[in-house]
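Sequence and structure are kept together here, with a separate record for every protein. A complete record is shown below as an example:
=====
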Amino acid sequence: MMGPAHSLSGAAAWLGVGAAAAAAGHPMPWPVLAVGALICAGAALAPDLDHKAATISRAFGPVSRTLCEVVDKLSYAVYKATRTQGDPRRSGGHRTLTHTWLWAVLVGAGASALAITGGRWAVLAILFVHMVLAVEGLLWRAARVSSDILVWLLGATSAWILADILHKPGNGSDWLFTAPGQEYLWLGLPIVLGAIVHDIGDALTVSGCPILWPIPVGRKRWYPVGPPKPMRFRAGSWVELKVLMPVFMLLGGIGCLGALGVI
């Protein structure tokens, strides 16, 4: 799928989690719901860091472009080292390592560890990166025609304001994990969810997605998970733009209302 659909699906997924948490008797404070949805929207773009034309690869200028090259080479190296005879030969790392459940868990765990050990500046860094990506994804057309510096300023300002709101007592810095020193440990959860939602979205497209790696399926370790081929669509097609994106917006709205206890 394309960036806007990925971001919308990520935000909708976290709002759905908020509704489920409320139904289970552990509602999210509204800042956790809002910040988590934005982080998840940004994280839903992150697996495409292995593709030089992706939104995330150009979102942070030379830094993200260089990181993209590194991640692409790493992904390709891992693919070549672990492929079986049933896996096809390929010339690049797109839709390999970064499009797996294992990558999602490792990145989310790393973010959580950074948040609880790095203090306020680590939290600000995590928020900044994902706020910029959320702007790039959710406001795709507006972000495309604006200056990168303006997008970065918006991301930095949002991160600073949201960090201050979360830090106030009762606003959710210790949501879910309440032991001393575990503030912001939950920040890794929307990152994991965003990456998994991205992978599921890509699995619906023609090429499928190797979400299950390194678990082998049949003769393939990089099995492209997906529905039956007649049910798949091409990225950017009318199915994505006219059907899935409105559905994501509807589900996100319902999830938000459920999370806030309105329905």
